[in-house]
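Exercise: predict the fold of this chain.
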Amino acid sequence: MSFLNTIRGFGRSSKKNKKDLDPNAPLYAHPNTSGSPLRRSQSPSKVSSPTKQKMNSQIQFAPQSPTKRNRITHPGSQLPKRHSQTTMQSTPSVHDEGQVPPLFLCEPFVKTALVKGSFKTIVQLPKYVDYGEWIALNIFETFNNLNQFYGVIADYVTPEEYPSMNAGPNTNYLWVDSNGQAVNLPAGQYIDFVLTWISTKLNDQSVFPTKNGGAFPPNFLKDCKNISRQMFRIFAHIYHNHFEKIVHLSLEAHWNSFFAHFISFIKEYNLIDRSELEPLLPLIENLEQQGKIA
């Protein structure tokens, strides 16, 4: 574990908390452009918006990892009472010839990025670095960055405007409660539950150990897959519903690079099945053609 305390150049320090966040700092920086130390000795918590202070309300419970999806059932651990699961309903995407593509697939936005080249080189396991440590570090940093990005647009994710957690017209994510009932939640509530659950996982020493001598549990990779799947759903919702806000704030280069980094990471370590990526598959294929994702 001590190796992570010596890593340099892979992102901002993870020791910042809500009141330490610099509202002028970039939400995402290419890992090779930062010289500040990165440590995983302190797990993250949900952060406030850099521009608004909405996300200060406390969530009473955090969702467990998803174990039910359409057509596929994933075995999981017994869920505590009042905790929930998630499922997804989707239909095949149909692209009519006359259909206008979403903004994130239009030029110049689809080609806007911070750097050129493939992100594969920065997600590959470095020499002498423990496999579990490297996976945990990337999950940790991705969550921090995604949490901050969501904080920017959280005030706009109201129940009135977004009464469901959708990722385009063909995908809607449902919540399975403790009674096994699939319910439709407003996107903001769904995302709050997911972010709280991930934060709880990252702060759990039995799942993400940070102390010297701590060993990763046998189900560590399964937890990482569930976390990655849930983070992808947030990416998909933002791309399909809030990308114009990202563009308005001139953050599309950071957002696209962050997403390409994330997809390169989950592809390198097979954390999400390609079928799960359907809501953003046209974008992913475009980034693959550009050489950003190998």
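Check your answer against the key: The beta strands are 68-69, 72-73, 85-90, 165-166, 171-176, 182-183.
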